[in-house]
Structure formats: C-alpha cells, structure tokens
Amino acid sequence: QVHLVESGGGLVQSGGSLRLSCAASGRTFDRSNMGWFRQAPGKEREFVAHISWSGINTYYADSLKGRFTISRDNAKNTVSLQMNNLKPEDTAVYYCAALGLGGIYDDVDDYDYWGQGTQVTVSL
C-alpha cells in the first residue's frame, strides 16, 4: 500500500508559481508510477502529469506542457509538481496518486491510491 499526503497549495495571483509536494509512505513507493490530477468545481477529475517509478519517463496533459513540471525523489519518498505562469483556469483541488499495476498513465480509474488533495486558487 501507499499512503499519500499533498501539500503546497494556496492562493496565488495569475502569472505566479506554486510547488506542490506529495509525501508518500509505504514499502513500494520507489516502484510506483505516480500521477497528479486536478478537479475543479463541477468538473470531472482530469489528468495533469505522470512520472515513472524511475523518474525517467514523464507525461503531461497537452494543455499544460511547458508550464508544469513533475519530478520525484525516491530517497525522500516525494513527488512534486512545479507550476509556473498559473492561470485562473488552473484553480482546482490537486491530487497525487499511485498508478495500479499495468494501468494507463492518464486514466483516473487506473490509479489505486490517492491523497486527500490540496487546493490551488489562482486569482486575476
């Protein structure tokens, strides 16, 4: 099992930056492919970014490429999401999650473990 706790959310002005962190506990974190998702009010949860267990492979939602960067530190059991040039439409609750075995990286239903989420609000 993997237990996940997100942090780093908050209120930021448009054009600003935030760095989200996800602290993981569990024996299998360093072999877990990890993802970030977000959910805005009234909308479905959507894929943001994914990183393989080794950190070698990363994937992003097309609309976020160039602004968001996912990374991980297996020695510290953390996954991070650096978000730059934030826009009001980035306002959402952000979740980190661990992908199930054989799952598809951008399919929300293929992730087995989720954190509680952290709120990101971007003002004009």
Observed structural traits:
124 residues; mainly beta; seven-stranded mixed sheet
3D architecture notes:
By secondary structure, the protein is mostly beta strands. The protein has no helices and eleven strands. Strands 2, 4, 5, 6, 9, 10 and 11 form a seven-stranded mixed β-sheet that branches. It has a four-stranded antiparallel β-sheet with strand order 1-3-8-7, with no helix packed on it. A hairpin with a 4-residue loop joins strand 7 and strand 8. It starts with a strand and ends with a strand. The relative contact order is 0.31. The mean pLDDT is 95.
The total of helices stands at 0
**Main pleated-sheet profile:** 7 strands, mixed
Beta-strand residue fraction: over 45%
Low-confidence stretches: none
Strand-pairing-aware structural class: mainly beta
- Head-to-tail CA distance between termini: 40 Å
**How does the overall form come out from the CA principal axes?**
globular
Helix proportion range: under 10%
Q: Tell how many strands the DSSP assignment holds.
A: 11
The Rg value, from CA coordinates, equals 13 Å
Overall pLDDT: 95
Reading the helices and strands in chain order gives: EEEEEEEEEEE
